[in-house]
């Protein structure tokens, strides 16, 4: 069984916040889901991903519809002093991972790909800067910047490997940031890239906490120096 078949129509146009709600409304046969809480969001996502053919516009709509409320997500928001953290919120019955990423002041990711998965990212607190890069064409070549975007409170953005690589950073020196990420299908390894040389290396991604509970120190410290 194909874990997650996503519509081809959802392509380069996704990098904006506009969703054709009328089209989506008609596609669903009338009636758009209401999302009033993180619990509602998870429930709706589980329903969407129960099918083998997932409507990606609907996933985007659901992520966008949820209005961040810290009371919903504070139990997952576990910060580390030195690096950003990945905190599992829901495993989507094996079809996707939903996680809260906590970015301290000045924390940023390495430049990375998304292991052929689809990635939705929603701001729950603060703002982040996303810088996109083209895939390196040859070894030893510096990565070329192809886009730059600020993600503000409640914004949603999307990326997959066909849209390039990216780095995400909390550029604020005074405020932490929290973002909610959905990866479909889930993955535990991706590639990270050296900006100057384009050199690629494999990186294992780990969780700092799962379902609101911190993992033991060994697991936390086993993470690679630069993961996504
Ligand atoms: Fe990413």
TrEMBL record:
Q: Which cofactor does it need?
A: Fe cation
Give the Gene Ontology MF terms in alphabetical order. Answer: cysteine dioxygenase activity; ferrous iron binding
Q: Name one GO biological process term.
A: L-cysteine catabolic process
Q: Which UniProt keyword terms apply here?
A: Dioxygenase, Iron, Metal-binding, Oxidoreductase, Thioether bond
Q: Which InterPro entries match?
A: CDO_1, RmlC-like_jellyroll, RmlC_Cupin_sf
Q: Would you indicate the residue range of the signal peptide?
A: none
Q: Where does Fe cation bind?
A: 112, 114, 166
What Enzyme Commission number(s) apply to this enzyme? 1.13.11.20
Q: 3'-(S-cysteinyl)-tyrosine (Cys-Tyr) cross-link position in this chain?
A: 119-183
Q: How is the cofactor bound?
A: Binds 1 Fe cation per subunit.
Under catalytic activity, the entry for this protein gives:
L-cysteine + O2 = 3-sulfino-L-alanine + H(+)
User: Where does this protein act, in terms of pathway?
Assistant: Organosulfur biosynthesis; taurine biosynthesis; hypotaurine from L-cysteine: step 1/2
Q: What protein family is recorded?
A: Belongs to the cysteine dioxygenase family.
PANTHER family in the cross-refs: CYSTEINE DIOXYGENASE, CYSTEINE DIOXYGENASE TYPE 1
Record-given protein name: Cysteine dioxygenase
Q: Which organism is it from?
A: Ignelater luminosus (Cucubano)
For this protein's source organism, the top of the classification is: Eukaryota, Metazoa, Ecdysozoa, Arthropoda, Hexapoda
